[in-house]
Amino acid sequence: MRQRSIFLAAAVLLLLAACAPAPAETQGTDTAQAAVVTDTAARKVLLPNGLLPEAAYTPPSPPPRYYDEITARLLPRDDYGRLWPYVGGYVAQLWMSGNIYGLCDEEGRIVCDPVFNDVKILEKDGKRLYLFTENLADENGRDVSKYTLSKLDGSWVGEYEDIAYWSYDREFMGETGYSWRPRVTYEYITVRKNGKWGVIDYEGREILPCVYNEPVC
User: What is the CB-side half-sphere exposure of residue 136 using CA atoms within 13 A?
Assistant: First the structure.
């Protein structure tokens, strides 16, 4: 019985020795290493592809330009190649807000800076023109918006005060409108310049000069 008690006491002492804390010097070293790891992790920003570079931030370079100076309108010429609209910013202007558009060539060079509030393509019998709308108002707040038509390669450009290229018939009864004919696209484009109306085709060629007081449809 006494021999069994001796063995039990020895086992308890071995268990206590295994659970005892490490010496002060070793414990301090582990704590210091943990602090270094934690501090390093706090100073690093992890991205999907690795650490964020520690070098100074370099802003992206601006895109190349076709013309050196700011170009606030599309200048016609025959050697652009196909032109493409791009979103150049966002603006709250007059009665509306939205993107503003410019034009670049196929190499990404800016041909026209972002000045247009809307871009459409007019198409008739396979012939296409860009229609650019620039929202403008005079000092009295009156709408004096400008409309630019151009070929898709910029070889012809025309600027107008207003255009008409489609219509539909509608009747009103009180506040309700009834459309009784679907939208009709005109064979030609009616344009206004210097307060007078005329007609051009989808190649930009003049059919009737701008000398009429009313739209010629």
Answer: 14
Mean pLDDT confidence for 143-165: 95
Cα three-residue angle 71-75-78, rounded to 5 degrees: 135
The pLDDT score that the predictor gives to residue 36 is 47
In this predicted model, which residue has the larger pLDDT, 36 or 176? 176
Neighbouring C-beta atoms of residue 216, cutoff 10 Å = 17
Neighbours of 131 (CB within 10 A): 18
Residue 42 has pLDDT above 60, yes or no: no
Whole-prediction pTM value?
Answer: 0.69
What 3 state SS string does the chain have?
Answer: CHHHHHHHHHHHHHHHHHHCCCCHHHHHHHHHHHHHHHHHHHHCCEECCEECCCCCCCCCCCCCECCCCCCCCCCCCCCCCCCEEEEEEEEEECCEEEEEEEEECCCCCEEEEEEECEEEEEEECCEEEEEEEECCECCCCCECCEEEEECCCCCCEEEECEEEEEECCEEEECCEEEECCCCEEEEEEEEEECCEEEEECCCCCEEEEEEECCCCC
82 pLDDT exceeds 50?
A: yes
CA-based R_g, the chain, Å: 37
